[in-house]
Amino acid sequence: MKEYDYLIVGAGLFGCVFAHEATKKGKKCLVIDKRPHLGGNVYCDNVNGINVHKYGAHIFHTNDEYIWNYVNQFAQFNNYINSPVSISKGKLYNLPFNMNTFYQLWGTKTPIEAKKVIDQQIKEYGVKNPKNLEEQALSLIGKDIYETLIKEYTEKQWGMKATELPAFIIKRLPIRLTFDNNYFNDKYQGIPIGGYNTIIDGLLQNVEVKTNVDFFENKTELESKAKKVVFTGKIDEYFDYEFNKLEYRSLRFENEILDCTNFQGNAVVNYNDKEVPFTRIIEHKHFEFGNQQQTVITREYPEKWTSEKEAFYPINNQANQKIYQHYKNKANKLSNTIFGGRLAEYRYYDMHQIIASALKKVNQELQNS
Ligand code: UDP
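# uridine-5'-diphosphate complex -> structure
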């Protein structure tokens, strides 16, 4: 007899949702994480009453009512709407690209005027089937926006030329012919009141958890404890890099506590210029409309990933996708191991997508068991 039905490796959103649902159906789960805390990258540190998004800003948004109701079981959400601004060559622009941005760039005041400029620039560029991020951006919104607000930010963020990056990354940026600075198009958005840890605590309420446990150091022993393993770490590491290493992009966060109530007037300020080494400054209190006497800011520096660093973003170019496919084929043959989440599926997932994916996998699993 095995001690657990499922050993869940990684206490991020995927692992926590899986554990919660399986536990609800009477399964015995053990969740382990090598970090000293739970929650994966949504974990927040409480610094003088301010929830600091320790692994980068997380803003919850979804169009899916089911997923929205799902997360609302564990926390209420505030009415935060993400409206970042971007600084480029000393000037400030609204994001996403909307009527405010077009006015700031060209002085256009109506959608017809703005559309005329955009269409003209797209026509001048003339590429119909974009093959990379640069071509995609130029054929979607033209040269001015690309050069002012995309090119340098993107090349800093990814450490690669925009011509070497896949086009899909830029599809995340909506273009709007209204004066609407909401970064997301989704119906539901907000930050959980009490922070993301509240959701994690709710998900893991009846689940056995162990932190500071490195799966790979104790693999044989840990695997022997459970009927099945749910693995949410790096898929290439799981298979001992048999088909070569997958590439990731890392980030370094530089936090500062400041003795002022308001540093930048917004939660997210992007810095486009290549001369500025960070991509954005996050002022965490603004996610929760905080009125503390102090403020905490984080400068986000993109970094080359090496195996000692956190793997934040998968680099989904063709070469890596090919490597990933080999791992995926191998993973599909393992009947007692389930792979899921940003690192195990090697996908640039948002939180709502991870939850949807975890629910799908756990429901399939529970139906079959
Ligand atoms: N991006 C950009 N300029 C900006 C912000 C984003 O060109 O001011 C591009 C960049 O290529 C980035 C992508 O849009 O990688 C997605 O950015 P987002 O902030 O949505 O993603 P996150 O890094 O928060 O996952």
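# post-check
The mean pLDDT is 96.
Residues 86, 95, 149-150, 153-154, 157, 169-170, 172-173, 270 surround uridine-5'-diphosphate (CB under 6 Å).
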